[in-house]
Amino acid sequence: MAISHALPLQPIDVQPLGDRLPSEKSVALFKSEDLEVMRMVLLAGKSLPVHQVPGEVTIHCIEGRLDVTAEGASHVLAAGQLLFLPGDLPHGVIALADCSALVTIVLRK
Amino acid sequence: MAISHALPLQPIDVQPLGDRLPSEKSVALFKSEDLEVMRMVLLAGKSLPVHQVPGEVTIHCIEGRLDVTAEGASHVLAAGQLLFLPGDLPHGVIALADCSALVTIVLRK
């Protein structure tokens, strides 16, 4: 994913993609000094392998349904739900339905 | 606003409040080591005076419409739009319609 420069004060659309979702890809929305924000697009049945990042993360499900597995348990997020992950926590993601989610990562220097 | 402890891995509802909006108040969703996340509720015509915080901020309009004024210009956010604000940037907020927004603040030590 190419990372856009931060665009302060410029509204960024993060509406549900709806019918367009199946043809969309994950996209970096911006990267600033302290934050990286992306929209993750994951089709039903697809997954991200277990990974971790140094900084804290929020995952905000915009549409569809996804499962975040961490600490041996499954955490299902429906559209309009948000999950907080501490830094350095290994987690995997599985799309239970076609979904997109706003992922906000605190950059740790 | 009382600040809840961070609740890692616990889904938090941030759906539109809809008809309930007029009777809801702004609420802190969680505060972690690096992040403070709240849902701001602002009724049409109400405003937050110009203020600033040390850390970077994202404002994600969940429903309604609001105006963020900064650097002498007005930046209108509709539902499903997100704005990035650098740290220490003075900004004011006016609700153009009854609105709620997810506000994510990076905590600067």
Structural class of chain A: mainly beta
Q: CATH architecture of chain A, please?
A: Sandwich
The number of distinct structural domains of chain A comes to 1
CATH class of chain A: Mainly Beta
- Tell me the strand percentage band of chain A: over 45%
Using CB atoms under 8 Å apart, which protein chain pair has the greatest interface? A-B, 43 and 43 residues
The largest beta-sheet of chain A arranges its strands as 2-3-10-5-8
Textual characterization of the structure:
The structure is a homodimer of 109-residue chains. Chain A is mainly β and 109 residues long. The first copy, chain A, has no helices and ten strands. Chain A has one domain: Jelly Rolls (Sandwich). Chain A has strands spanning 12-13, 27-31, 35-42, 47-51, 57-63, 65-70, 73-78, 81-85, 91-95, 99-106. In chain A, strand 2 and strand 3 form a beta hairpin. The model of chain A has no long low-confidence stretch (mean pLDDT 94). The A-B interface holds A 6-16, 29-30, 32-35, 37, 55-56, 58, 60, 68, 70-71, 73, 75-87, 89, 102, 104, 106 and B 6-16, 29-30, 32-35, 37, 55-56, 58, 60, 68, 70-71, 73, 75-87, 89, 102, 104, 106. Strand 8 (81-85) of chain A pairs antiparallel with strand 1 of chain B.
